[in-house]
Design brief:
The protein is of the alpha/beta class. The protein has one domain: 3-Layer(aba) Sandwich (Rossmann fold). The protein contains 15 helices and 16 strands. Strands 2, 3, 4, 5, 10, 14, 15 and 16 form an 8-stranded mixed β-sheet that branches. Helix 10 packs across helix 11. The longest helix is centred in the first third of the chain and has 17 residues. The chain is globular.
């Protein structure tokens, strides 16, 4: 039995069943034994791969998007270029390289990475050697001022609560001890205090047994982002999820690129859930910001010029390299790959013009 499993069982024995959000937070970010704290989860030798690791084109286009929104908002000096959950630093490296194409952009911004994992911070230092970078445990310590922020596959790892429609109302799914060795799911005896976060049309019309996922952590982070990008700035959120709030159990664990048991060997698998972009958009508007999208990742990258960039790269590449480029870009925008499942949401200050790639998406 691992130290984290012992810790979780002891906690449940003392305090009673814990929420899915509590279990998820411990499994991913326990300060000593959490999944993200103890390893580099990315790449072929890890558990999953993200868009920046698939092709440099993803980061280049995101970099140009950030530079263009910076220019459109007046090109402020002393701006913060922020990434939440920066992985190995690959995306930020590509952003900075592409950002040099916009005169003045890289000189005007200071780079801030919000990363809690010591293992990933070391990878980021290697990737971004030669760049001045400041690391933060949370967004709260990033300096205030004009902020241009990107969060790629960040929100999917924030803890969620699962509410279940029962004859007692919307109750909370919990993790309890099961037998002598394992964990199991159960349901709280009373209604959850988080019921107000369930949209009225879902709260009143869901069938018995329906599951609705809410993420107070995501709402909190989105509100912080809105405070940062107003009155000057922009944020781009890219993740997998659904454009409208809906019932469904999307919690999943991944180990070695394969689906794993969520409750088995906590701390050794990535645990994520689909992002509710409807809730994020609504939160942005309630915070006084503008929300554009969501649009699919395929649509965004196509509108930003991925096909032009593909042709440029293929033209200069050897046959084997050209084939790899085609496959990578197909993975990013293909409807059966990441192109449809992944969505993008832009958050800008009130009064801002529609950002690139989000035309007709307000």
């Amino acid at each position: 039995m691992s130290p984290l499993e012992k810790h979780l069982k002891r906690r449940i024995a003392l305090e009673g069943p814990m929420t899915v959000a509590g279990f998820m937070a411990e499994a991913l970010t326990h300060p000593k034994h959490g999944y993200y704290v103890t390893r580099d989860p990315l790449g072929a030798d890890g558990d999953f791969i993200t868009a920046p690791e698939i092709s440099q084109v993803f980061g280049e286009l995101i970099g140009l998007w950030l530079a263009e929104t910076w220019l459109r908002s007046g090109g402020p000096a002393d701006a913060a270029l922020v990434e939440l959950g920066p992985g190995r630093g690959t995306l930020m490296a590509d952003i900075l390289r592409a950002g040099r194409m916009m005169p003045g952009f890289t000189d005007a911004v200071s780079v801030h990475l919000v990363e809690a994992s010591p293992a990933l911070r070391e990878k980021q230092r290697e990737t971004l050697a030669g760049h001045a970078v400041t690391w933060h445990e949370s967004l709260e310590t990033v300096p205030t001022g004009p902020t241009y922020l990107v969060a790629n596959e960040f929100f999917d790892a924030l803890p969620i609560h699962q509410l279940v429609q029962t004859d007692r109302g919307w109750c909370e799914r919990v993790v309890a001890l099961q037998g002598e060795e394992g964990f199991g799911f159960g349901v709280s005896p009373g209604s959850s205090p988080l019921v107000p976060l369930v949209p009225p049309h879902i709260r009143e019309g869901a069938e018995p047994g329906a599951v609705f996922e809410v993420s107070p952590a995501s709402i909190s982070v989105l509100r912080q982002i809105c405070e940062r990008v107003t009155p000057q700035g922009a944020a781009l959120i890219v993740d997998y999820g659904h454009p409208e709030s809906a019932v469904g159990d999307t919690l999943q664990a991944v180990r070695r690129h394969k689906t794993a048991d969520i409750l088995s060997d906590p701390g050794t698998a990535d645990i994520t859930a689909h992002v509710d972009f409807d809730t994020l958009s609504r939160t942005a508007r309630e915070s006084g910001a503008l929300a554009f999208g969501p649009v699919t990742q395929g649509a965004l990258l196509t509108r930003l010029g991925i096909e032009i960039r593909r042709r440029q790269l293929v033209k200069k590449a050897a046959p084997a390299q050209a084939q790899a480029i085609e496959a990578a870009i197909g993975r990013l925008i293909g409807p059966q790959e990441m192109g449809t499942l992944f969505k993008a949401l832009a958050v800008l200050p009130a009064g801002a013009q529609t950002p690139p790639g989000f035309e007709d998406s307000e």
